[in-house]
Write a structure and sequence with these properties.
The strands form 3 sheets. The chain has a 5-stranded parallel sheet, with helices on both faces. It is elongated, with a radius of gyration of 19 Å. The chain is 41% helix and 21% strand. The longest helix has 15 residues. It is an alpha/beta fold. It contains 8 helices and 11 strands. It has 2 domains: 120 residues, 3-Layer(aba) Sandwich (Rossmann fold), CATH 3.40.50; 95 residues, Winged helix-like DNA-binding domain superfamily/Winged helix DNA-binding domain (Arc Repressor Mutant, subunit A, Orthogonal Bundle). α6 packs across α7. α1 links the parallel β1 and β2.
């Protein structure tokens, strides 16, 4: 089981019980500490003692809406806010981001995408919480730039480390070559996408993944790490 969420607190705020239940079960399974609220005042009260790192916050709630809650949360303490809405209106997105929201998702959404966005917020705003992470057979020590598979430290170049770390942290997602280039090599990388294939081949060799069961090629889409 992944231990990526260990020690990380997430507060869910939504007036739809089925959404709360769905997210709570998934996040608890990932190892996060989870609290929930069905309205704004309750969320602010819980946050005072729970001290969440990430708040998943619905915009459309009766009474105190998500915009007001976001402003109050941001004024009180450092916290990452991911806002949810059933709308896709640009005005809502702009207003939320102006009030300090860190990310924005429209309903319906996949749990895997939300999880990836939570990981991104933690990496950016609370990197100390991700210094050492265990996910299935993988262990990542970001401070020492070490990555282990089945208790064996892999001999990786700096780029190989960053690539495998990115694949493992996003193991629920199929990652395209272009997305990998942006996140690992950087947006200003001027080389060819085929460089990703070269590094994937090298990682498979170091993982003894001859049958490609660890790093899967999803034809026409990209790559995904399988965690068993």
């Amino acid at each position: 089981m992944a231990q990526l969420g260990k020690g990380i607190k997430i507060l869910l705020v939504d007036d739809e019980p089925n959404i709360i239940q769905f997210l709570e079960l998934g996040l608890l399974n990932e190892g996060f500490q989870v609290a929930s609220a069905t309205d704004g005042p309750e969320a602010l009260h819980i946050a005072e003692s729970f001290l969440p790192h990430v708040v998943i916050l619905d915009i459309m709630m009766p009474g105190m809406d998500g915009f007001e809650v976001c402003r109050a949360m941001k004024d009180a303490r450092p916290v990452a806010v991911i806002m949810l809405t059933a709308k896709e209106e640009v005005e809502d997105r702009v207003r939320g981001l102006t009030l300090g929201a860190d990310d924005y998702m429209s309903k319906p959404f996949s749990f895997g995408e939300l999880l990836a966005r939570i990981h991104a917020r933690i990496r950016n705003q609370f990197p100390q919480l991700m210094e050492k992470v265990s996910i299935g057979p993988f262990s990542i020590d970001a401070g020492n730039k070490e990555l282990s598979y089945e208790d064996r430290i892999l001999d990786l170049s700096p780029t190989e480390f960053e690539l495998l770390k990115h694949l493992v942290l996003n193991h629920r997602q199929v990652l395209s070559k272009s997305a990998i280039l942006d996140q690992v090599w950087g947006y200003d990388f001027g080389g060819e996408e085929n460089i990703v294939e070269v590094y994937i081949r090298s990682l498979r060799d170091k993982l003894n993944d001859r049958e490609r069961r660890i790093i899967r090629t999803m034809r026409g889409v990209g790559y995904r790490v399988d965690i068993r």
